[in-house]
Amino acid sequence: MTTIMRQLLTGLLLLALLPVKVQSQDSTGRLLQELNQTIEAAPTYDAGKLAAISDLKHALGQTPLFDGYLRLYEAYKVFNYDSAFAYARLLQATAVASHDANRIVDARLKMGFCLLSSGLFKETLDSLDKINIQGAPDSLKAEYYALMGRYYYDLGDFDNDSYLTPNYTRIGNAYIDSALALYPKGSFHSLYYQGLQQIKSGKRKDAAVLLKEILSHPNLSLHQVAVTTSTLSDIYITEGQPDTAILLLIRAAIADIQSSTKENAAIFNLAQLLYKKGDVRHASVYIETAIQNAVFYGARQRKVQVSAILPLIEGEKVSRVEEQKAVFVTWAIISTLLLLAVIVLVFIVFRQVNHLKAAQSALTEAHEAEQAANARLKDTNRALSEANKIKEEYISYFFNADSESLSRIEKFKKNLEQKIAYRKWEDIIALVNSTNLKKEKEELLLNFDRVFLKLFPDFVQRYNDLFRDEDKVLLKDNELLNTDLRIFALIRMGIHENEKIARILEYSVNTINTYKTRIKNKSVVPNDEFEQRIMEIKTL
């Protein structure tokens, strides 16, 4: 946990020392990916938290009871309300039994914090009103005033109106003034509450400077990093800089998860901002995480906040599914048209093969009738035989590819009809995402390589014979042909037009011309003889 905290603090320190600006989309994407990974690892962080709590429980008999209960309360206070509340009650009972006035004050402060964190405003005030702060040490007085200040701030945020909120803010500022007079100068609590007071007083620029100063301090705990970064993000939200606020909230959410803090607002606020920017996918994941945290901790006010935005996000998700459905239908139509085109192509090739066979028969008869042209007819017959072999190999390949395509499309169609019938939109999205056109294209080229090398097994060697050693082609592991070889493999197959080669390999005509020129310039044979030498490579 120390290494993780150090890495997080290093990143936040850089953010504090540089002017806060809108980051690139790639930076936000990387941070969101890091947050997603942290969410997946949350059970591991929580398991560590529970193990530490278990150790504290086993050590209860080895320390004074009040101190043991206090450690357990501190472990639970931002982790689970019910357990924190239970130990706060035990603290009160133990303090009352000891007749120690300072412990009684301390225990009631812990109870007040617990109640406020759960959104029980009336119960919080009832508990705090019972505290007699007179005679208490400065540390407890500072804690009391800060808690009262937070109470009125939270109450004002909850009401959020123009009548009650300003008065609550004024009262909260007065309590924070009292707390700041007692906290040690330069301490985290002194700086943080000073910045919070400046925010509530409308001095956001001063507050931003102060909060960045806090983040530059070494040895901050993960919880302190999360609280400070989340508070700083509120300033940028108010100033209309949501991109910077998103980056800060991501950092805060990561720190909350790594410290197993369930009573937090960072990931909820992050979900709201991402929803407003149209990133419904991430917003949905983070609002669900916020719900889980609120339920786990028992934060009533957070459940109310989440319930307000959750229907909006879910509604947007449904709209996106409908859009994906329309895309699926379009894709299915295009796939059907492509299949028909393949069938027509196979028919044309098959007919051409029959024509070639007829031509071969005629040439054979002419060879027998005219012995003087025997050598020329032999060359012609060999060329036709080679062409026939090439066509037969690729006819077989096209029939197999066509059969596989028909099977996949039929299976896809059945799955699509079934999922549309049962309105399984998420399954439909998964089905479409499972279709990898790039992989299909790579498989098509790989099958072409296999068939071609079956016909011309020494093609690569004969091709390399046309170059110096330093310019010879070196294929990667599991690579049959590369782009250079495929261009001249297609030429050897009789496809000489650059436009056709470009369409087959999905390049521009200019790119094909560039490839051919570069390759010919490296060859040891003249450029105008290179393709003829390629055509002289024989089949098996």
Shape: elongated
Gyration radius (Cα, Å) is 37 Å
Kindly, what is the distance between the CA atoms of the first and last residues, rounded to a whole number of angstroms? 64 Å
Question: Major sheet: size, sense and barrel closure?
Answer: none
Helix percentage: over 70%
Summarize the model shown.
With 540 residues, this protein is mainly alpha-helical. The protein has 24 helices and no strands.
Please tag this protein with its features.
79% helix, Arc Repressor Mutant, subunit A, 0% strand, 24 helices, mainly alpha, single chain, disordered N terminus
Overview of the molecule:
With 540 residues, the protein is mainly alpha-helical. Among the domains are: 64-132; 317-435; 455-540, Arc Repressor Mutant, subunit A. It has 24 helices and no strands. It has helices at 2-17, 25-40, 42-58, 65-76, 81-98, 101-117, 121-129, 138-159, 165-180, 188-200, 204-215, 222-238, 242-258, 266-276, 280-297, 300-369, 374-421, 425-433, 437-455, 459-464, 483-492, 498-505, 509-522, 527-535. Helix 2 (25-40) packs parallel to helix 13 and helix 10 runs parallel beside helix 12. The two termini are 64 Å apart. The model is unreliable at 1-23 (pLDDT under 50).
What is the secondary structure topology, with strand pairs?
Layout: H1 2-17, H2 25-40, H3 42-58, H4 65-76, H5 81-98, H6 101-117, H7 121-129, H8 138-159, H9 165-180, H10 188-200, H11 204-215, H12 222-238, H13 242-258, H14 266-276, H15 280-297, H16 300-369, H17 374-421, H18 425-433, H19 437-455, H20 459-464, H21 483-492, H22 498-505, H23 509-522, H24 527-535
